[in-house]
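Appendix B. Raw example, untouched.
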Amino acid sequence: TLELTVSGVSAPKAETYPPAGTLNLCNNSDPMDSNTLFLYEPMFTVKQIDQDSATPCDTNTTTVTLQTNVPLCARECFSQITISGLTGAMPIVDADGKVQLTGGSGDRSSDHNTFAAGPKGLEGFAAWSDAASTKDTEVLKGIILYLTCCMECGKPYIFSFPVKNPDCAQPAKPIYIESTNTNPSTNVAIPQTEMMYMNNQLPLSIKYDDPIGGRSKPMEVVEPTWINNTMHSSNPTPCGENTLAVTLRANVPFNANHTIVIEGLTRTASMDDNMTALTAAGGLPECFNATGDWTADGKLRFTTKEPIDADRVCAFSFKVINQAKEYMGVTPVTRSWVCRNMGPRPGGCTGLLNKDMNPGQIQVGPLMIQKKLVWQEMPFPCDLNTIRIDFNTSVRLLRECHPVITIMGLRNAEQYQTHENYSDWVRVDEDGSALWERGHWMQMPLSGPGHDAGVKVNLSTFITTGDQAADSLVGGKDTFTLSFLVYNPPSGQPDNQVKIGIEVMDDKMMKNMQAHQDVPMEPKSGHTNPRSTDWSNRLDHSGATCLENFGLNSTNPATRGTPCVRPYDDMIDPKPMYIRHLQYMTKTI
C-alpha cells in the first residue's frame, strides 16, 4: 500500500500494483520478480561434476561446471563454496597444501581464477579438507573454494582439479555442493544438495574402447585387472630351450621399478636363482628392465623400466630349459601389488593384482619309439654277426638330454671284443658316417638254458650340433640307424623277440627322467645279402679252414681271431639271433 501526506494533509491509502512482466535478470523468469522485495532463493542452477579416470590409483581430473541464479558474493569476498563426498580420493597438493585449479576452454579459460584456497588468497587454487562437510553424520572429504570476487549470476564457471584415485575398487559416490560464508551476518547461503553427473562411459584410451574403463560419475573405481595376460611356449622338446612369449596390459598404471611376478613355472630344468634375460617383443618399446630374477620355486620377478600408463601393451620373452620328463604343462599366474610395491591398502582391499594366464605352458612332449626295426646280417653259428637297428622317436633328442637306448633280447649272443680289448664295451656305428660310440655290453642268465644279452648306447655322439629341424628352432635328431657286432652262438636257434628302450635325463640334478622301455622291435623282412664265394681259404680262430672246422670249438670268444665267412643264400631270414642249425647237405663216402 501507498500512503501520501502533504503539509499535514493525508491522502487516502491506496494499493500499489507491480509493473507487468519479469525483470529478465540472470536468466531468471519468475513473473513476480519485479514485485517489491521479491527475492530469489539462492541456488546452483548448474552443478555438474564428472571425472576422466576410473582406474585405481590413477590421476583423476575432475571437471566442475557451476552456475547460480543470484550473484554469489559477500562483504569482503568471504563467500565460499564446498564440494564434498570425494570418498577414497587422495589429494594432489603443492607444498602449501593447495590444490591447483585449471580453467575451461575458450572464453572459460580464466574461470578458475574466481577461486582461492583461503580468504583473499592467491587466485587459481582450492583448499583440500578431509572434513570439508558432513552428511548424515558422515564426514566427507572435499575442496573448499573461496571467492576472490563475486560470481556473476546466470554465467557458467568451468574449472578442473586433480585427485588420486584410491587403490581399491569402489562404486560411484554422491557428491555434494553448498555455499556458506565465514561471516554469519553477511551469509549468502546455498543449502547442501547433490551435484549432477553426465556419467559417460570412459574408455581406457582412444585406442581401446573398453567398457572396463568405468564411467565418469566421480569416485567410481573399477576393479584392477590384467586386460591382456598371455603366455605362449615355443618348444615341447625334452631338455630343449623354450622361449616363453608374454603379453601384459593392465588397467592400472605402474611406476618405474615396479615389481611384477609370474608364478607357477614349476618343473623346468632351468638353473635355480639365476638372472634371466628379458627381450622386448612385438616391435613394442621396452617396458621392463633387461634382466629378471628366476627363483628355485619357478617364479620370474621383473621390474618396469619406466612408468607404465594404464592400458599400455607390453610384450617380452624369456627362455627356460624344459625338463626331460613328459609334462602336461602349467597355468602360470601373473601377480603384482596394485599401483605400488606395498601390502594391503587402507581401503580394505589386498592391493594384489593377479590373474591366471592361458594354461598348458612349458609342456614337454611324450618320448615314444615309433618306427623300430631290427635285423641281422649273418644267421650262421659261431660267425661274426652285424645287428642293425632303425628307429625314430616322437620328439627330437638333444645331446643335453643324455639319451640312452637299451637293446635286449640277443639270446646267447657273445660279445665282440675290439682290438682295444675293452671287456665291457661294444663298438656301435651309425650308417653313412664315421661316428661311433662304445656301448656297454650286458649279459644275464635266462631262467632256462643260455643267457640274454644286449647293449646300452649313449646316443649323444650321434647327435651333432648341426642337426636342425627345418621348420623349428630346436636342434637334435629323431631318426637313427645304428649297427654293432656280436658273435653268434655255436648252435642253431630260433629267432628271439628283441626289445628296445630309451631314456632321457636333464641336467638339473639328473633326476627328471622319461623312459619308454621294453618295446618289442619288428623284424625287417626281405633283407638281401650278397653271395660270398671266397670262403674256403678263410681261417677261423683255430687256424683251420672253415670247411675243416665248420661251427666247432667256438665257445671261447677270447681265442677268436679273424672271423670266418660262411657261404649263405641270397635271401636269409633277418630276424635277429635266428641261427641256422648245422647239418650235412650231402653225405658220401
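End of appendix B.
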